[in-house]
Design brief:
Elements: E1 2-7, E2 12-20, H1 25-37, E3 42-53, H2 55-70, E4 74-78, H3 82-91, E5 99-100, H4 103-111
Parallel strand pairs: 2-3, 3-4, 4-5
Antiparallel strand pairs: 1-2
Length: 112
């Protein structure tokens, strides 16, 4: 898994590449926690290059959302497709998180 971050006007964009599973979830959580501790409260997570997400990945995503909500922040997901989209639909996570077709759309939603 690879994580890249960039600060945009309305949110921190987090691009996740590869797999989010039991092996990589702790690193994802550590990096997100560091961003939250550093004062970030608005996030767009770009899953365009995410190939796979497991239940461990879903759990860490939910845990991060709870931390962000506790800080009155927002998390929006973008570019979820293929097998990852199927996992979100089957697990019901598609109704938990605001999901957008593009990073631009998600950024616009965080600005409002």
């Amino acid at each position: 898994m690879n994580i890249q971050t960039s600060k945009e006007s309305s949110a921190m964009v987090v691009k996740v590449t590869g797999r989010l599973d039991a092996v990589t979830a702790p690193e994802y959580e550590q990096q997100f926690t560091a961003l939250i501790t550093g004062g970030e409260t608005r996030f767009v997570v770009d899953f365009e290059k995410l190939d796979y997400i497991s239940s461990a990945g879903l759990r860490v995503l939910l845990a991060m959302a709870k931390q962000i909500k506790a800080k009155s922040g927002q998390i929006h997901l973008a570019n979820i497709g293929g097998a990852v989209r199927e996992v979100f639909d089957i697990s019901g996570f598609g109704s938990i998180f605001p999901m957008h077709e593009s990073v631009i759309s998600a950024l616009n939603a965080t600005a409002g």
